[in-house]
Write a structure and sequence with these properties.
17% of the residues lie in helices and 28% in strands. By secondary structure, it is of the alpha/beta class. Bound molecules: zinc ion.
């Protein structure tokens, strides 16, 4: 079976309070974290997971989140850093239709897009609380592309499957990637940071290398993000992801600065 390497790409920076990453914990602690895409290399096709964030408004924010280097430019630069142009990408997997994961799709009109059918259905009418962060305006454009509305377990390519992991959104998908070190799971925003995977962690190191103290949550196997549609679904999804990945270190969260500059597997 094809073995891939997984390369997190920093496409922008986004500011939030830590309580967005870990539900209602550290609500006064500001953090700046990366907006990430992930590039899967080593197979016959060039596969990108997520397409970055929308441009900021005049005040430098979108929906209350400060953004830096946002929009198409950050996505183009992140690909250029690894010697690629948007035209080179064969397949784009969109984990979910939030503004910081599914923007800039117009850079990839030639690519095949993979989205969970459930996410596409949910995006037609998101819960009111999520309307502002959903990219409903791109649905028409997405539908004009080679859009695959995938079911749970769909094989994108040999060694790359998508699974439906609801909780953060109704139809979010995670990407199960075969590597020389077994399976890795690119979890998207099901798990924002390593603090969600290792709740006993008492710090996060931000994008600038600053150590920021966090309140540890011992006694929790996993800790949920502050943005979610259903926490019952979320718990089921995280246990399923761990079962597939086998090891916590094989789960890659959606926004952790610790992913920057690394390639997985690391050995
Ligand atoms: Zn999200």
């Amino acid at each position: 079976m094809a073995e891939y390497k997984i390369r997190p790409l920093v496409v922008a920076k986004i500011g939030a309070v830590k309580g967005v990453a870990t539900h209602m914990v550290d609500m006064m602690t500001p953090v700046v974290v990366p907006v990430l895409a992930f590039y899967l290399e080593g197979g016959p096709q060039k596969i990108l997971i997520d397409t970055g964030v929308v441009s900021a408004g005049e005040d430098g924010t979108f929906h209350g989140f400060p953004l830096f280097n946002a929009g198409t430019q950050g996505m183009i630069e992140a690909l250029a850093d690894i010697g690629l142009k948007p035209d080179d990408i064969d397949i784009v997997i969109i984990t979910h239709l939030h503004f910081d994961h599914a923007a800039n799709i117009n850079l990839f009109p030639q690519a095949q897009f993979i989205l969970q059918k459930k996410e596409w259905e949910y995006a037609q009418a998101p819960l009111p609380i999520q309307r502002g962060v959903y990219m409903t305006e791109i649905l028409g454009q997405l539908e004009s592309f080679d859009l695959v509305l995938a079911e749970d377990g769909y094989e994108v390519a040999e060694g790359v499957n998508v699974i439906c992991v609801p909780g953060h959104t109704k139809g979010q998908q995670a990407v199960v990637v075969n590597t020389s070190d077994g399976k890795y799971v690119v979890a998207g925003d099901l798990l924002y940071t390593y603090n969600n995977i290792y709740p006993e962690k008492d710090e996060i190191i931000d994008m600038f290398g600053n150590k920021i103290a966090c309140t540890p949550q011992p006694g929790h196997a996993f800790y949920p993000p502050g943005i979610h549609t259903d926490l019952t679904d979320w718990y089921e999804s995280v246990w399923r992801v761990l079962k597939i990945a086998g090891r916590r270190k094989h789960i890659l969260p959606g926004h952790d600065p610790a992913l920057m500059g690394r390639v997985f597997p690391e050995k």
